[in-house]
Amino acid sequence: MNLLPLGVLAYPAIDPVFLQIGPIALRWYGLAYVAGILCGWLYGRHLAGTPRLWPNGVSPITREDIDDFIVWITLGIVIGGRLGSIIFYDFARVQADPLSALRVWEGGMSFHGGLIGVVVAMILFCRSHKVPLFSLIDVVAASVPFGLFFGRIANFINGELWGAPTSVPWAMVFPTGGPEPRHPSQLYEAGLEGIVLFLVLRVMTHRFGSLGKPRLTGGVFILGYGLARIFVEFFRMPDVQLGYLLGTSWLTMGMVLSVPMLLVGLWGIATARPRAHAPRPAPAGS
Known about the structure:
Strand content: under 5%
Low-confidence stretches: none
């Protein structure tokens, strides 16, 4: 019988596989991506299809644009997230075992890499479909917190990316984290990057008309995520293969990758200007 130290919460051990069908294992980690993309898609359609959120009641993006973009953003998330994880965090292991790059069900997705992949997907999509880039960025940015929330919950279920040792009353002993009680930093990120950031962006779009100022919603998202991620990194253990980049307890790769986000976010907010959107011309022959 394992006895937990006083003041420590029991880690709710949940099987990472939520459904086994013969040799096929369906995992919470994969379900989190499906739920995040699905909720983001539905919310993006809501934003694009609500006239009062746009100048003069005219949205430069249609619900059909959001429908068409779903495949593009999915590819951007998966390819960018996996490449980012390999390049930023795990290059040596993948170099030694190249096939591990394909085992995405084991985890190993980088938000910063996924962000780069999504930006590339948006640029290519907007060029192909004649959609205003910064307006699409704003809609996507307001929808991303769904994926962040579900993704961090999946990290918690997997018992990965746990926090530093602590004596706070809500500390937990993670199965793969040794005997020390630790910060449940995955839940901190789910709350800040998912719930808090969504509410901030919701107020921006529905109360302050931020969609009428291209780059404002996206700028607030990028700045907000960067601040939240840097804050949580003080409570989260760095990836074991990298450790702390400076000193013994504070600078991590997550912090380094988030600093440029602060600068980009501030730029987006500072340069956002009101813009009236004219209806896009109908396709030839319609």
